[in-house]
Specification:
The structure holds two protein chains of two kinds. By secondary structure, chain A is of the alpha+beta class. Helices cover about 20% and strands about 20% of the residues of chain A. The chains are: A alpha+beta, B mainly beta.
Chain lengths: ~350, ~400
């Protein structure tokens, strides 16, 4: 055996030993440690295995100002199928991986990150299952947390201000609260229209959908996709920005198939009826969530609109969304305030 | 500590450190057919609890023994959330939740037995909205429960089907018991007292399930409902006047019989239409086929709440202060005002002769007649057609 062959054999062995463990993705129970899946070749530095592909969404859910890194894994020789305005139909054995973290100091990335949790959506024979792994203080391993966990986290923001949060890692049921559609767990983010943007991969900057095609993890995507606007993009019209924000932050529950359908308040992108968008809509079972106001949205009067009141609140009995947030998303509150203010009666 | 008995699959939770995590974890890892016992004691929780496993029993050791206290709740929109089927909850108390106490969404088969939900600081608008809050559920049993201090309804069943609420007590809530946008309900043997209003049967527009019907309210005591309305504004119950025994709004096929209504300062029984504007073409805002008979009426109307909503004020004016036991607003669709109500949709009232009744003739009212009211309940006599009792399989 010559040296080159030896080297190649060794290399193959190396790659094999660090392959993503598909059996664990398919297994009935989740392993205790995140590292067992083999999604990362360096856990602490969050360096993914080469089959684990990073991606970003155009518009994202607010989670107490935490940062999120996302990856997708699709088994070899299988492809996720394109679905019109839905999430890609991923093959069994796929994984969606999302790590939540705070930078130590938003002004200086070199000071590092504080990893909070890594949430998994795994496509098993029986469908998607969700679970979160919370990182240890040493930041060397993340452990399964079926009942969730409280992390008292802190970071320094862009203004140099010290921020603190009672961050909640969701329990399995809370994962379902947002990820349930018609009672089945489903991913929210990876719809073709929502990943139709460029990303800086190791190999260079490409459109994510084009890259996914190239890596052969999806079967197809239309070239004429109409994508939501990035709600932070101030060059866009405020109506589009707000509807995009509400869609991704509220629409998974507040839709006719979501968990909050009994309210009659529907905030997903396809809703067009004023009353169901909240305009002069009376609360149904809101209780003190109403804040003493009569309607979800009063055009021109953000200060009398229940929707804004509940977005701004930090009281667990009042605030929306019901879970996943302990802080107020100030920038979004300002934007929605302006949107309601400009709204014509 | 969490312990698991391999043979019987029973889980036990004791008070102590990490009780929330132990209880929540057990309620996630338990399997169908298992029983979890929360041993007697005081549990102070900072986060809500949730259950999503079918066919399990979660029980305490008594509504005064196993106390789940949410006074310091930091997260969760309710104390306890159930989203699974064939669940029995019994023998514990949920106290001072920041939002609703016990919410059940989309469950088929939910038994709530001998539970207590309470806000301990007295009636306050900062209390949570609902004590018991099953919604979009089917086969709902609330039996032997106690609900105190809710700023909306102590026991609220919304957009559900096949419902029994019995042998329960609702006190010091805005509404004691409320059945809303629901089909097929029996509400019996309950005590609703010292609420703003005792028992409400409501239907509202613009919701996935509407057209509430087939509701039987019988053998209840709705007495001494004398608490000022403390609902936060914006909520429909915020319009309900203090001192109301039973209100039926915009439902069809409702039977009210053998109840005791007494000590209600505004009115014992009120039957009304939904009075706000709505563009919902699928919504019917008027009550129809309402049958009222064999009830016992004690003093009422002696302290009408003229401050809250329009009902008490309008009734006070139109009756010249002689508040009736039974009030029907008389509002029907325009065509029926002109051509009359279909015979089989008419209100039926069969009560003792001394029971007072008042309704408004809308046409006379609009045209400015000096006395647009009718008070002779003999006009509303008819043969009572009892509704079928509600049956829940296995109950």
């Amino acid at each position: 055996m010559n040296r080159t062959v030896q080297f190649l054999v060794l290399l193959t062995l190396c790659i094999r030993s660090s392959a993503v463990d598909e059996n664990l993705i398919l297994a009935e129970s989740f392993p205790k440690e995140l590292s067992q899946f083999g999604f990362f070749i360096d856990e602490s530095a969050q360096v993914p295995h080469e089959d684990v592909i990073p991606y970003e969404l155009i518009s994202t859910l607010f989670s107490d100002y935490s940062y999120k890194q996302r990856w997708v894994y699709v088994p070899k020789n299988k492809k996720a199928e394109y679905r019109d305005s839905e999430v890609f139909d991923f093959p069994i054995g796929s994984a969606l991986i999302k790590t939540f973290y705070y930078p130590v100091d938003e002004r200086n990335p070199e000071l590092g990150k504080n990893l909070l949790e890594t949430r998994l959506l795994l496509k098993k024979e029986s469908g998607w299952e969700a679970l979160s792994y919370a990182w240890n203080e040493e930041q060397t391993e993340a452990y399964k947390k079926v009942a969730g966990k409280t992390i008292n986290a802190a970071w320094t923001d862009f203004m140099g201000e010290e921020k603190e949060v009672r961050y909640r890692v969701p329990n399995v049921n809370q994962c379902k609260e947002c990820h349930a559609s018609d009672d089945k767990i489903t991913p929210i983010g990876p719809k073709a229209r929502n990943i139709n943007k460029d990303y800086k991969f190791n190999e260079g900057e490409f459109n994510q959908l084009a890259y996914w095609m190239d890596r052969q993890i999806i079967d197809d995507y239309p070239l004429d996709l109409i994508s939501p606007v990035d709600w932070t993009d101030e060059n866009q019209g405020i109506d589009n920005r707000v509807r995009s924000y509400l869609d991704v932050n509220c629409g998974h529950c507040h839709s006719p198939t979501g968990n909050a359908n009994s309210t009659g308040l529907y905030l997903h992108l396809n809703e067009t009826r004023d009353i169901h968008l909240g305009i002069y809509k009376k609360p149904v079972a809101t209780g003190r969530g109403s804040g003493g106001f009569k309607y979800s949205i009063v055009p021109g009067k953000p200060e009398e609109s229940i929707l804004l009141h509940r977005m701004a609140s930090m009281d667990p009995g009042v605030m929306m969304p019901e879970s996943g947030r302990a802080l107020t998303h100030e920038e979004a509150v300002e934007m929605v305030k302006e949107w309601i203010l400009l709204m014509k009666d | 500590m969490l312990s698991k008995n391999a043979i019987s699959e029973d889980f036990f939770i004791d008070p102590g450190p990490d009780a929330h995590e132990r209880l929540q974890e057990a309620m996630i890892i338990m399997n169908e057919g298992d029983t979890l016992t929360i041993r007697s004691g005081y549990y102070a929780f900072e986060d809500g609890l949730s259950l999503d496993i079918d066919n399990v029993v979660i029980k305490g050791e008594g509504m005064n023994e196993t106390i789940l206290d949410f006074k310091n709740q930091q997260s969760g929109a309710q104390g306890f959330l159930v989203t699974s089927n064939k669940v029995t909850l019994k023998d514990f108390a949920i106290m001072d939740a920041k939002g609703d106490a016990l919410k059940v969404i989309g469950s088929k088969g939910i038994n709530m037995i001998n539970l207590r939900t309470e806000w301990t600081g007295g009636p306050k608008s900062t209390n949570g909205a609902y004590g018991f809050y099953p919604v979009e559920s089917e086969d709902v049993l609330i039996d032997g429960c106690v609900a105190i201090g809710a700023s909306d309804a102590g026991i609220y069943v919304g957009q559900s089907k096949n419902i029994i609420v019995r042998d329960s007590i609702a006190q010091y809530n805005v509404a004691g018991i409320e059945i809303e946008n629901s089909f097929y309900a029996d509400v019996y043997n309950n005590l609703a007292s010292h609420n703003t209003a005792g028992i409400l049967v409501f239907d509202l527009p613009d919701l996935p399930q509407q057209g509430g019907h087939h509701i039987r309210v019988f053998d209840n005591k709705s007495i001494d409902n004398d608490t000022d309305n403390f609902a936060p504004e914006g909520n429909i119950v915020g319009e309900v006047p203090r001192g109301t025994g039973i209100i039926v709004m915009a439902n069809s096929d409702v039977e009210i019989f053998n109840n005791v209504m007494s000590g209600n300062g505004t009115v014992n029984l009120s039957i009304v239409s939904y009075s706000d504007d709505t563009d919902d073409p699928n919504y019917y805002p008027h009550p129809k086929r309402i049958q009222v008979y064999g009830n016992t009426y004690g003093p009422s109307g002696f302290d009408p709440d003229l401050e809250t909503g329009d009902l008490a004020k309008a009734l006070y004016e139109i009756s010249n202060g002689n508040m009736p036991d039974i009030f029907w607003d008389g509002i029907v669709p325009m065509t029926q005002m002109v051509f009359g109500q279909p015979q089989d949709e008419k209100l039926k009232v069969k009560e003792d002769s001394e029971v007072s009744f008042l309704t408004i003739s809308p046409i006379k009212y609009i045209m400015g007649f000096s006395n647009p009211t009718r008070t002779d309940k003999n006009e509303f006599k008819g043969v009572i057609n009892p509704l079928e009792p509600i049956v829940i399989d296995g109950i």
